[in-house]
Structure formats: C-alpha cells, structure tokens
Design goal:
The protein is α/β, with parallel strands linked by helices and 311 residues long. It has helices spanning 42-52, 67-79, 121-127, 143-155, 186-193, 200-211, 252-267, 270-285, 297-307, and strands spanning 4-8, 12-18, 35-40, 56-64, 86-89, 95-101, 107-112, 134-137, 160-163, 179-183, 216-222, 228-231, 236-239. It contains 9 helices and 13 strands. Bound molecules: alpha-D-ribofuranose.
C-alpha cells in the first residue's frame, strides 16, 4: 500500500531567468541565456516529488482563478496528485516566484505569495480528513494554517514534518506540537540559530540550538553539496551528498525533504532515508527548473545504479 502524505503548503508559477551574473546597481546586461515559466512553489515541488517517487500525495494549497492557476491545476492532475484539498480564490493571483539562476547553479528567489496567503485554518483542517500517514509543511503559507494542521495531526497521532523554508524567524514555534522531523537548509539554520552550520562542529552546534526553538524527534540540516546532518537530541550523523555537476539548485531542498519523508514512512530507517533523499537532491541539482528537475522512480533508480550509490 502506498504511503499517503498530505502536503499543506504553497503553489507558485516560477519565472526563471538564467543570467550570466547579477547586475551592479544601475547596470544593464544584455543576456544570451533564456527565461522560462516553470511550475514551482515549495509545496508543489514536494507534492510532485512524493507522487513521482511512488507515494500517494494529497495536496492542500490555494491557487488564484487565473491562467497560471489553471495551468498548475492541470499539471498536478496529470501527475496524479489527489486534488481534493486544492482550493482556488478570487482574492489574489496565483503565487509567483522570480528566480535568478547564475552560471554556477545558485539561485536567488523572491516569492510573491498571492493566493498562498489565503490558505486558511479551515482549508487545513478539512484537508486532514484524508487520514494521511504524515503531514508535510513549509512556511510559505500563513502561520494559522500551519498551526491548525499541525494540531489536528498531533491529535490524531499523525507524524508531522516541517521543511523550515522560507526562513520565518518570527514564526510562533512555541505553539507547535512536537514534530517528527524539522529540516532547515543552511541559510535557514543560520537565521533561526545565529550559527552558520559550515563544518560538522558548527552544524552540530546549530542542531543543538534548534532543539531549544522547536521540539522534534529529528533535526535534519540540509548542507547542500556537503550532504545532511541528522540529530536526535543525543546522537548525530552526517550523510554525504553525491557528486554531480550542479546546474540549478531550485527545488533540491523541497524534493530532498519530500523524499526523506516518503522513504522514512516506507522503511522506518532514518539514515537510509537521508541517503535516499541525498540521491534525489543530487539528481535535482543536475537538471534545470523546479518541477522539471524532479525524478520519477525509474529515473532515480537508474541514477542510483549508475552512481553505485548504496542506500
Ligand atoms: O524551493 C524552490 C521554490 O521556492 C521555487 O519553486 C519557488 O516557487 C519558491 O517557492
């Protein structure tokens, strides 16, 4: 039986600009690269990853009633995602992200949340009626939706995973019930704890500091090309990443945490799940775009075999 993951999170259309470099103030650069509209949004990227990797995803998000919203809904439908909790609003346009990708694959993202800001507590509570095996969220939606979904899940004993992006240092962490997994990336970790998690010692110090901010069974810090650190309040371990040529890091974190959650539900083995998620992350950074770079099961297993990766 497939594991059901309820993703309560964001949906955006990404306006992606591949640039040679960031202009200086007042400078104009004539580019030879391209620009594209690519479906994205942290929540949608994770939802697509869950579904493509063999999970059963129920996606709770809010779209605008506009052309981008329509295009996104069609894409999710084609992916086979359960859309019973996907809502639309007339109040705002579909979320839009402006993503600048430089030649080394690094990205800079500005998100205009639009309809995502209208996802509310009722939407989140209704979505939980699908009885998922886990609840998965980011901070790209209103705090009240995150808190309501979390409390509803906690009451029913459903494990909660929070991918802590984008960084929201003023989020009322003390109002969250205990989580199963809390997973920020490097820059989010630094914003939450004031510690730059570069190097194993600093990453561990940051994980210990996270423990004082939010209660969770596991803290998993995504360390980019250095892999990921897991800390359970007592022991820690680092799983190295796999070497690939990075062309675009967009959606790597979203699909890492989605893959981690899915494999953790399937295997119950946290280290295996992190290695699996590292493989997904490596695959994603080697391709361009958000949803366009996420592998399906066959693509991932070919990648794992070709790299000799042992899970
Ligand atoms: O994490 C990448 C995502 O962040 C993009 O797809 C963009 O939409 C923003 O939500």
């Amino acid at each position: 039986m497939k594991k059901r993951i309820l993703v309560v999170s964001s949906a955006n259309m990404d306006f992606v600009l591949n640039v040679s470099r960031i202009p200086e103030p007042g400078e104009t650069i004539l580019e030879s690269g391209d620009y594209r509209l690519i479906p994205g949004g942290k929540g949608a990227n994770s939802a697509i990853a869950v579904e493509r990797l063999g999970g059963d995803c129920v996606f709770c998000a809010k779209l605008g009633r506009d052309a981008n919203g329509e295009a996104l809904r069609k894409l999710y439908e084609a992916e086979g995602i359960n859309l019973s909790a996907l809502r639309s609003t007339d109040e705002a346009p579909t979320g839009l992200a402006s993503i600048i990708v430089e030649r080394d694959g690094c990205n800079r993202i500005n998100v205009f949340p639009g309809a995502n800001n209208y996802l509310n507590a009722d939407d989140a509570e209704e979505a939980l009626l699908c009885y998922p095996d886990a609840l998965f969220m980011h901070f790209e939606i209103p705090d009240e939706a995150v808190l309501t979904a979390a409390h509803f899940a906690a009451k029913k004993g459903i494990p909660i995973v929070i991918d802590a992006g984008p960084a929201k240092p003023d989020f009322p962490f003390d109002k969250l019930p205990p989580l199963e997994i809390f997973s920020p990336n490097e820059s989010e970790t630094e914003i939450y704890t004031g510690i730059n998690p570069s190097g194993a010692d600093n990453a561990l110090r940051a994980a210990v500091a996270l423990q004082k901010i939010v209660k969770s069974h596991y803290y998993i810090i995504k360390l980019g090309d250095k892999g990921a650190l897991v800390y359970d309040g007592k022991y820690y371990s680092i799983a190295s990443s796999y070497d690939v040529k990075a062309v675009d890091t967009t959606a790597a974190g979203d699909s890492f945490t989605a893959a981690l959650t899915l494999e953790y539900l399937r295997s119950g083995n946290i280290m295996r799940s992190i290695r699996y998620a590292n493989a997904v992350g490596a695959y994603v950074v080697s391709k361009r775009g958000a949803s366009t770079s996420i592998p399906n099961e066959k693509q991932l297993s070919d990648f794992i075999k070709s790299r000799g990766i042992e899970l």
